[in-house]
Amino acid sequence: MDLLKNMCERLEQRYPELVRFRRDLHMYPELSFREVETPKKIAEYLTRLGIGVRTGVGGRGVVGTLKGAKPGKRIALRADFDALPIQDEKEVEYKSRVPGVMHACGHDIHTASLLGAAAVLSEFRHEIAGEVVFIFQFAEEEVPGGAIHMIEDGCLDGVDEIYGAHVWAHLPVGTIGVIPGRAMAAGDRFEIEIIGRGGHGAKPHVTVDALFVGCQLVNSLQSIVSRQVDPLQSAVVTVGTFHAGKAYNVIAGDAVIGGTVRTFDEDVRNAVEASIRKMTDAVCTIYGAQAVVRYERGYPVLENHPEPIRKVEQCAVRLVGEEKVLRPQPSMGMEDFAYYLRKVPGAFFYVGGGNEQIGAVYPHHHPKFDVDESAMLTIGKMFLSLVMNPQ
Question: What average pLDDT does this structure show over 215-227?
Answer without folding.
Answer: 97
